[in-house]
Amino acid sequence: MWLLYPSESDFPYEEEVLRDPLKLQAWQRYLAALAGAPPQKRFSIYERAVRALPGSYKLWRGYLAELLDAVQPLPISDPSYASLNSAFERALLTMHKMPRIWLMYLTSLTEQRRVTRARRAFDRALRSLPVSQHARVWPLYLRLVSLPGVPLETAVRVHRRYLVFDPSHLEDYIELLLRSSRWQEAVTRLAAALNDDRKSFCSVKGKTRRQLWLDLCDIVARHAADIPISGLNVESVLRSGIRQFTDEVGMLWNSLADYYSRRGLYAKARDVFENGLNAVLTARDFGIIFEGYAQFEQSLLAAKLDASDGEVDNGYLDDGEFWLNGGDDTDFLIARIELLFDRRPKLLNCVLLRQNPHNVEQWRRRVTLFDGDPSTQVSTYVQALKTVDPMKAAGKPHTLWVDFARMYESRNLLDSAEEVFERATQVNFKSVDHLATVWCEWAEMELRHNNFEKALQLMRQATAEPSVEVKKRAAADGNEPVQMKLHKSLRVWSAYVDLEESLGSVESTRDVYDRMLDLKIATPQIILNYASFLEEHKYFEDAFKIYERGVKLFKYPHVREIWAMYLTKFVKRYGNTKLDRARDLFECAIEQTPSQEVKPLYLQYAKMEEDYGLLRRALHVYERAVKAVPDCEKSSIYESYINRAESLGFKEVRKIYEQAIEAGLPDSDLKTLCMRLADREASLGEIDRARRLYTYASEYADLQSDSNFWKMWREFEIMHGNDNTFREMLRIKRTVSLPAQTFKRIKRQRLQ
Questions:
Q1: Residue ranges of the Pre-mRNA-splicing factor SYF1 central HAT repeats domain (predicted)?
Q2: Fewest C-beta in 10 Å: which of 77, 438, 543, 670?
Q3: ω into 557 cis (within 30 of 0)
């Protein structure tokens, strides 16, 4: 105790506080001077100070802070905590409006695990402090009620009060309710927040309304038995989610079915699965629902099989759970599962058709699903043709009509098949080719049943040009149907002309071809077919006239085949009797053909001159050809040119060789020509000419890739040369093997 008495150094401070006990600075100077004194001595000074100045916030805060530091290392059961709490209570008599004092006190009580006293202190703090300061108190209050050992009811009540202050933290309250298994209140609160028309609720955890809806649906589905039917309309909640969140439809349908299944309403759950399968629009959602449906049926079967192994009494299992009344229905459940899996392809097809009712391929697949059931196939075709809009169709809508007619044809119901085709020809398809295919398929069906005249009549009807009145009426409507363009369909005309060639007369076939040319729908192949048809029937001049029309009608490259056939046929037909006309044709063809493609025409032209004309004319054609064709094709022309000039003597051939060497041929072709000419010159004794040719070609030769050239030159020098010429050949060979820069330097030195 003697330590608590003032020392000699404290006398000035004692005199000051005794002289003026209401002066705060005097007490602060006294406490500052005792900074190193024992805590008990400082506490006694603080007690005297707060008794003298009970309304001083600085004194109370400093005093309470030092008390908190003093009890920090002590166990909670230590009596010092009682003194601390007593000091806080005394401080709050005058400091009840100071939030910092309250926060220090509440934090201390929370750490002491004095739940009841802390809860009452929190309530007092909320009553004492203004509402603007409550946001500082509530986090501590929520931390208190979240401590282990705090009664769940207390935590729920505190969170409920907190929502009155800050409704945005509804998610924390719902999580607490879920932890405490209060499913009814949790779903009610969450549903109320989501159904708020003002949409004032905003998740503080960053969840979207979609995520919250899915959480709600998951809760009501998993805990269906714990939520009273009168408390919340679960079905309406789930169906509302199905309408709003189309990307989670499959999961929500399964949740609704699971809700009824957990309540034991198996028939209702099955109806929900069926409704879901018949309502979804994507294969993904269908897969989710179907998998859930299959698991549901399999779980019922497994439960039934387990129940059959136990004791069954009056429809109750041995564990007291009610099952199905009546006898053994295991076979019925097995049959139901098999039927479900058998229905899967049809159900999936329905989903894809709901997704796009104009999907032609899916309608065709649907028909194949009913193989063996003609009546259902017919009704499917009828439904498809009523549903599919040709302008919106994904695929080829005319194939539905064709398949429908073929189905009747396969059952020898030709009248029904013809009726289908006739109705199909009245449909306004998106493409003329679709309508043309219908007409061609109809005609082919008639041909398969030997109705040749009917097939021809159909083609005549399809290619008939609409009347002027019909055209005016279609123009007035503003939407010209494809039927108005059918008479210009190449597909229909091609089928028509094939039928006429096979079944009609020569005149009728020629009439069809001429109409195609007049309509300007003929292709180069049609021209060739027409000319070939006329040649078969000995109308050669008429065939050549058709070729003439073809080369005037088309441009390059489409006209290439027509020219080739025309020239070949003309030369073969007339030979040397109409050479001038043939020459005119060749000149015209060469004039129209680009240089990259003119080589075959020049060769054909020269061949004609060789066979039926003059050799000089043929050589002149070759001379023109080497000037007209690209550099890469000149070599082959020169070879033919040289071969044909052999009959005029080597002097003429030498001129052609020299012309070729100077014509700018590729290096490989140039070396070949030089070697051939050198060989010829050597055979005639012109050794110097041959050597100059080898020397000239060496400028374009490579030491590694042109070993044959160097070998021939070496053999030439061994046979015809001497030591000097051989050494010169070796020197040139070494020069070629040097790097390019060195070679250029040596060449410059030689020139100097």
A1: 170-388
A2: 77
A3: yes
CA nearest to 168, candidates 199, 124, 201: 201
Q: Measured at the alpha carbon of residue 76, what is the angle toward residues 73 and 80, in degrees to the nearest 5?
A: 75
For residue 734, is it within any domain? yes
- φ/ψ of 313, rounded to 5, equals -140, 115
Contact 417, 458 (CB under 8 A): no
Assigned domain for 346 exists: no
CA pair distance 158, 142, nearest whole angstrom: 7
Least Cα distance to 585 among 614, 637, 572 occurs for: 572
Question: What separation in angstroms does the CA of 42 have from each of 39, 493, 557, 599?
Answer: 5, 117, 112, 119
Q: Which residues pair with 316 in a beta bridge?
A: 313, 322
Spell out where 205-318 has E strands: none
Residue 719 lies in a domain: yes
Q: Mean pLDDT by 10-residue block, N- to C-terminus, for the chain (752 residues)?
A: 59 75 78 75 79 84 83 83 85 86 87 86 89 87 82 82 78 76 72 64 68 73 64 72 79 84 86 89 88 88 77 42 53 88 90 89 90 89 90 88 91 90 89 89 90 89 79 66 82 88 86 86 86 85 84 80 82 79 81 77 76 74 70 66 63 65 62 65 65 67 65 69 71 63 47 42
For residue 373, the tally of other CB atoms under 10 A from its CB is: 11
CA–chain centroid gap for 478, Å, is: 38
CB 493 within 8 A of CB 512: yes
Tokens of 375: 């009546």
The answer to whether 272 and 257 have CB atoms below 8 angstroms apart is yes
Please check whether residue 84 lies inside any domain of the structure. Answer: no
Could you list the residue range(s) of the whole structural domain that residue 696 is in? 677-751
**How many Å apart are CA 696 and CA 213, to the nearest integer?**
91
Q: What is the dihedral of CA 47, 48, 51, 54, to 10 degrees?
A: -70
The Cα–Cα gap between 465 and 431 comes to 18
Question: Smallest Cα–Cα separation from 563: which of 595, 606, 536, 597?
Answer: 597
In the chain, the number of structural domains is 1
